[in-house]
Amino acid sequence: MTTLPVLYPSHCHGLSPTLGRWCPLRAVDVFALREVAEYEGQGIYFHLNHPMKWVRLTGIIVAMDEFYNRVCITIDDGSGATIEATCLAPPRSEATATVAAIAVSTERPADDAMVSPDGPKLRGVDIGKVVKVKGGIREFRGVRQLAMKAIVILGDTRAEVGAWREGVRFREDVLKVPWVVTGEEERRCREEAEGEKWRVEEEERRKRRRERRAKREKYDGGEGKEKRGRMEKEKAEAKVEEDAAVVKAPSEKEIKAREEREKARRARAIQRLVRSRPEEAGKYAALGF
């Protein structure tokens, strides 16, 4: 039993030779890709430990239908299997799609009338044409398909052979051996991912603060900023006055010393008065003067 190579964490996918490109595969290659539970629903599949999301196929159109406002093109690339490539049907001036399959008309007058909302330009695309199709991998009722993003009609045999040779080189140079990431590369990718996660979270926090501030200003009738400025100024002034009062407030010792000085001052004043008026000396005798 062959042991599958280790799958690297998603923060290493930026180093993948397959994930960020159009992988030239055959229909049988697409059906052979394996799913991993961790990436379910993300449209990512694996060959060995190579993650793949976007593929490119070259083949001849053997069927072309429209179902429920979707164009479905069946492609035979000579690999022993056919695969369907689908996209939204180009908008029509009047509804012509029915529940039953109908052939896609190629007699629309304008080029832009043959452009799918998903991107592919379908003018001239018909049964018997050799095409190069690009798209993502999707599943419909348990069957793998291509979600078309682009389609090009190959003009001659040379272009067709060139596309097939590119697929052969890709399988030999890339898919034949497992993808290897060194420990240093994995560590660097992890640190970059953690930094990016922090940056995104910080941006979200800033966004929430801006939204709350905007709501407060709107609630205050546009005067919230000015009002808060006045309140902050008043608080600052009150704080300064409070600090000054604390600095100026005398201690208990100072208060007692002040009372003693005041008492001594009054005693000296009475003594001067007694000396200046001897006849009234008896009046102050009881006070000890």
From TrEMBL:
Basic residues composition bias: which ranges? 206-216
Q: Does the keyword DNA-binding apply?
A: no
Question: Which residues are listed as membrane-spanning?
Answer: none
| Subcellular location as annotated | Chromosome, Telomere
Query: Where are stretches of biased composition, namely Basic and acidic residues?
Result: 191-205, 217-242, 250-261
Entries under Pfam families matching the protein: Stn1 (PF10451)
Region (Disordered), start-end ranges: 191-261
Keywords in alphabetical order: Chromosome, Telomere
**Which InterPro entries does the record cross-reference, listed alphabetically?**
NA-bd_OB-fold (IPR012340), Stn1_N (IPR018856)
List the SUPFAM superfamilies.
Answer: Nucleic acid-binding proteins
Domain CST complex subunit Stn1 N-terminal positions = 42-87
Its cellular-component GO annotations read:
chromosome, telomeric region
Top-level taxon of origin: Eukaryota
Which Gene3D superfamilies does the annotation name? Answer: Nucleic acid-binding proteins
Could you identify this protein by its name? Answer: CST complex subunit Stn1 N-terminal domain-containing protein
**What organism does the UniProt record list as the source?**
Pseudogymnoascus destructans (strain ATCC MYA-4855 / 20631-21) (Bat white-nose syndrome fungus)
